[in-house]
Write the structure tokens for this entry.
Amino acid sequence: MEPTPPPRTVRELSEIDRRALAITGGKGANLGELVAAGAPVPPGFVVTTDAYSAAVRDLDLDLTADPARIREALRRVELDESLIEAIGTAYSTLGGAVAVRSSATAEDLPGAAFAGQHDTVLNVVGLPAVLDAIRRCWASLWTDRAVEYRARLGIDGADVTIAVVVQRMIDSDAAGVMFTIDPVSGDPALTIIDASPGLGESVVAGLVTPDHYVVKRGRVRSFTPGRRERVIRSVSGGGTREARGEADGTPILDAVTVRRLARLGHDIARHFGAPQDIEWCVADETVYIVQSRPITASATPLGRVNPIQRKAAEMFTELTPFRPYPLDVTTWTRESFDGVRALFASMGPRLDPLESLLTEEDGVVVSLTPPTPRVSPLTPFRLLRNVFRSDRYTRDAMLADERLTTAFAIVADGARLDLTALDYDDIDRRLSEALTIMPSIMRLRTRFIPRCAMAALRFGVTLTLLGRLRLFGLLMAGVDHKTAETNRALEELATSIRGDTDLAALVEGTDTADLPQALAGTATGRAFAESLERFLTEYGSRETSILAVSSPTWGDDPGLVLALLKAMASGARPSVETGSARAERELYSHPLLRRGPLRRLVDRQLTAARGFTQFREDTHFYSTLGQPLVRRLLLEYGRRWTEAGALDAPFDVFYLRREELAEPPGAERAAVLRRIVERRRAVYRRLGSAPIVDRRYLKRRRVENALVSGTPGSAGVASGPVRVITDPSQFDRLRPGEVLVAPTTNPAWTPLFGRCAAVVTDTGGAASHAAIVAREYAIPAVLGAVSATTDLAEGTMVTVDGTAGTVTAAN
């Protein structure tokens, strides 16, 4: 009987397929399968699991021992001469630099991606360096993060082995990840591509905000430029280096490359029979695939959705335009939602706590189930009781309320603080104090809102009797409030730009990011900068997201205001009669209201009803007063933990939960927090930019021959080119006469409405911010179009019919 030949410890990728999982690990098996399918995979080989198992046997390792001891032993292990020879022979066929990647047997599988858990070593040059990188990959099977991840999935470490993939290094011009479906909503028609210059590690590790492409049927439906905070590139002779990137808003990928990637992703998903999470790179206009694995999370059936839940979904898609971070959720978001719950309770209905609505993965919000307010037979009696308990609203009474004066005092005191001089416990105390502002203002609403609502209801009944109920929304908008005051102040700044030829040329010809420095270089620029500073002192707490303090306010990032001013300065606001003025004129043209006691009654009712709008807008403004202070305090945590080695940058603190910051910085705790941040960053990368409120909750309205359709929000018809704006940093891209297409809007977007021809949003309804403002500015609006930002290509000429709720191709 002939002896059994020794196992082959090195195999070419071209020799293996997905059946080789046990000896090549998940990554190796998938890459071999891709090679067999003809995908453009860089050539390479796999050091099989047999080589790892032999090393474990030679070291006589106890795999139940301390992981640190196992790691250290594997990093120092002497390799068998036959293994070194086999690796050397395979490496010589590749030549030059290679990428060395871990490939565990429990990796890149459905339900167990192990993304970012095991090591990758890039741009490795020379056989000794390759051998050392292989040892490092073996040892990474026993890092604390990998051991913890296996424990959460119930995988025994003794049952897992590891192979190592060695491939020719692609010194890429651009790289990133691609999801062949929307990873949360599960929309199979969409391909999501994230890209950044240089090597893909910056995207995979979540180190950068990448360029973001949404592709449908081979066409880019939306593009969001990245920030390119870092660029990782190869270094001659081996290794990599990081450099600061330059974000100029120019796409890193052209349309041809995007189509090629999307088509390739579709082919790969079809081959594997499941949606894929794909890592890719581009060098010299050639696309390469360096990894493909099943998407480990996808949409689940919703079940029956009731009408109240659909309305709640409309509201929460406006309130949560992006995925909040764990520190958002455990600080500002939680306190804000508790304030909303108190407000609902004052009106009768009850809401469940925030935690019961969230689905989380390792502390990261995956989805939010829209709440269904609980209404009982006692709700009308509670509402009536609260009306009698509430006070009649006047602006003076609101401003004198102790809750508001306390909020002013907390903010003023916080502005004078030197946060670096605070003890660690003092930061926590100040944070707790600042977090009371939002719920306190929401509770202030409970003092006045029931009677405000009743005043609006009485006025609505009067309009119904007069046959003028359709004017209700427009009439309610015709009152002064903090949002209108802010917009007037902005308009004054924009007018000062237009009124100075040199200043206008400077603003128009300078990138928004470079404007502060450019303004400092001229006398008129410095004078304008001083005016802007005074504006920010008064209105800098204006939020870009009311529920997420990780998102900067205007004061935190003056570039947001400069982007807005660039758009406003590009053309004077048209002088048109506002919707509320037109509605008031029509109301008082009624024969019964030309004079006499009935007109005076309607006057009083209108003034009282408009108190609802003024009170709502003013308290919205004041509720965000604490955002800048809370954000400063949280970033001070981040600064200290960055110095302790837990974070790469202060902003990374938002990956943590508040309770995880209870202890002051220390080396041991810093190591624990770093592992948590790395895990959660990988979860964020996998989830991408998918909305946390499933779009299937929103009622999609379809009209034949319409490009998109939704809820009629503001009457009228207008035509113009599409301009897709997905976040406030892009405000400066809007030009007069364009159709503003956005996921949603909030008060920070209001000044844009005076420049655009029409507004179309993915979310919202007739009572949403976009609809109310569009009616006041007398421009057509279509709300709740669900997929407008992806279905309407930028630059396309369209006609928006705000009466019919449709967007069609312009004739």
